[in-house]
Design brief:
The structure is a homodimer. Chain A has about 350 residues and is of the alpha/beta class. Chain A has 3 domains: about 5-45, lambda repressor-like DNA-binding domains (434 Repressor (Amino-terminal Domain), Orthogonal Bundle); about 60-160 and about 295-320, 3-Layer(aba) Sandwich (Rossmann fold); about 165-295, Rossmann fold, CATH 3.40.50. Chain A is built from 12 helices and 14 strands. The first copy, chain A, has helices spanning about 5-10, 15-25, 30-45, 50-55, 75-85, 100-115, 130-135, 165-175, 190-205, 225-235, 250-260, 295-310; strands at about 60-65, 90-95, 120, 140-145, 155-160, 180-185, 215-220, 220, 225, 245, 270-275, 290, 320, 325. Chain A is elongated and about 90 Å long. The termini of chain A are far apart. Chains A and B meet through helix 4, helix 5, strand 2, helix 6 and helix 11 of A and helix 4, helix 5, strand 2, helix 6 and helix 11 of B. Strand 2 of chain A pairs antiparallel with strand 2 (about 90-95) of chain B, so a sheet runs across the interface. Chain B binds a DNA duplex (16 and 16 nucleotides) through helix 2 and helix 4.
Amino acid sequence: MVTMRDVARVAQVSATTVSHVINKTRKVDPETERAVLEAIEATGYLSDGIGRSLRTGTTQTIGLAMSAISNPYFGTVVHAIERSISRAGYSLLLADTHDDPVRERRAVRDLLSHRVDAMVIAPSGEADSVLDALVQRRIPVVLIDRIPTRERPGVDAIGVVNEEPTARLVDHLAQIGHSRIATITSDPMLETTIERLSGYWNGIERNGLTRDEDLVQVGVRGSEETTDDAVATLLGLPEPPTAIVMGNNQVTIGTMAALQHHHMEAPRDMALVAFDDFPWANIFRPRLTAVSQPVDELGAGAVSMLLDRLADRDLPPRHRRLEPTLKHRESCGCTGLSTGT
Amino acid sequence: MVTMRDVARVAQVSATTVSHVINKTRKVDPETERAVLEAIEATGYLSDGIGRSLRTGTTQTIGLAMSAISNPYFGTVVHAIERSISRAGYSLLLADTHDDPVRERRAVRDLLSHRVDAMVIAPSGEADSVLDALVQRRIPVVLIDRIPTRERPGVDAIGVVNEEPTARLVDHLAQIGHSRIATITSDPMLETTIERLSGYWNGIERNGLTRDEDLVQVGVRGSEETTDDAVATLLGLPEPPTAIVMGNNQVTIGTMAALQHHHMEAPRDMALVAFDDFPWANIFRPRLTAVSQPVDELGAGAVSMLLDRLADRDLPPRHRRLEPTLKHRESCGCTGLSTGT
DNA sequence: TTGTATGCGTTATCAA
DNA sequence: TTGATAACGCATACAA
């Protein structure tokens, strides 16, 4: 490996000067500078981040801990985050939590061992103990997707509004005549599931519909998908639903597959609305009426908060909620009103 | 920050002993070991990867350079790779190439600066100069998706067979009566595009169809999507095609959107077959007849080759081709034969 | 304008 | 069974 000393030797200067040339950190005689740059070129020297990190205490690396399994937006989120942080001169270290608290703990430990300067975490259910460790180490954290109820120093959060948009999905189904409206949720441990479910109940109540616990089914439990059972249960009810609110992307795919097994088609045999949109939702049939999350903005927003905090660690904790947008298409069954894009 | 010396002080031993306890690298008196473990617990010590890396020369980190923009399988590939390498005790450092040779260069430099132990690269068109630098530094590389024509020491590659499967897509369309079969390709700079295009021509010729250059349109050029134009050109032809072979996932989405603008529906107004499958292809309509890549196997295979090479750097270069599978569904227009899953 | 010396946290060598 | 010491590559305080 070619080190700074090698460059220094070739350029006939000290390592100090080489360092200063590379980092533009003090005035250097143009002549000397040229010699150094030439030596760098000649030797093919590339600065060693490890050495620098050990010395400076910063790795210019940001850790991302999230589950790739359950998050259909995984790629988009990673991309959005990567773009923002690389623009700021950081690299992205990835750790998959597999939607499992134990793996999540290990993932965060791993990122800490690599001395990431900050972390983005899309937490599974139980992130609290992990967070405490991070707060104690004073490492900047932004939680994505989940807004914690308790504020902690150094921990920011960004997510979308879940409750009211879900209620509005129910509103819409009620307005077009449905009275038996079911919901299939994602994992009940997830904060977002809880909020969306609460929105569902709000919708049921404010539209004067009968509150029926049987109409709520869980589509994901841990790493297990149970949408098949959920759909079967709903269809086996004495008075089955005529419409379903699907809690997220994963549930949507599962539910649609299950309905297909029962030879049912949306919106003819079942009205469907979903939380979470698909990028190709306009092209394939049925065109889903869905609440669309601003994924790019979530990623960019998360990084922006992180960079702010990196610049000033004593910033008060901030929690941001972005508004999702309703894409009104055809799976809900009122084709005339379609405005979706 | 709590270091090994802190632990040593608390445990009343030397830092050497602490290190040996942590790494189980020499015999330690059980009593001493207990004291050390207790001190670790008490101090909340976490070993510092930077210090270790500087000393040992290995970072236990693998770099992944690929484009998130153009690769619809991005998430799946990242996930597959992450899973394999984390099992082997490595972490994943991500660098987005944005499908641009300049950004790709920077991405690789960046990964090198972070001293990744090895790299997985999904190369854009011009990866050769980058590769030379890596070979020179003797850092293990596996190219994913693209099989280079020239072998290089220390560079493995894994991808799918592109030519024959594409030819078979043409076969199928010809057999069900199409004689004007077009193709919309991905970026012409990509190796896979070249191979698939070659397969297309093979198909045209071996089915005795007229060779017509107008039936080949480019759907992606660099970071620009031109499927709209491609479709418009095809439809404007004196004798328009009745079937289209779509070169990859991105092209498929673009083509279907464009066809929709022209109020055309598959397979009624246009038979469609695609290279690249969608995970939800069975649920939404039209159900695409598509060549499906074994994405998980690609990721796992790439990592497996890398680990082999990490164990023995002098292994001869290996190039692996995996067979994709044809998912015969409905968009090609011969519904009776559907076997897709 | 440039150079010397030191230490970041760890592990390997050598000695006890 | 354990410890003292040096070195990995770099950036900085200090000296010249």
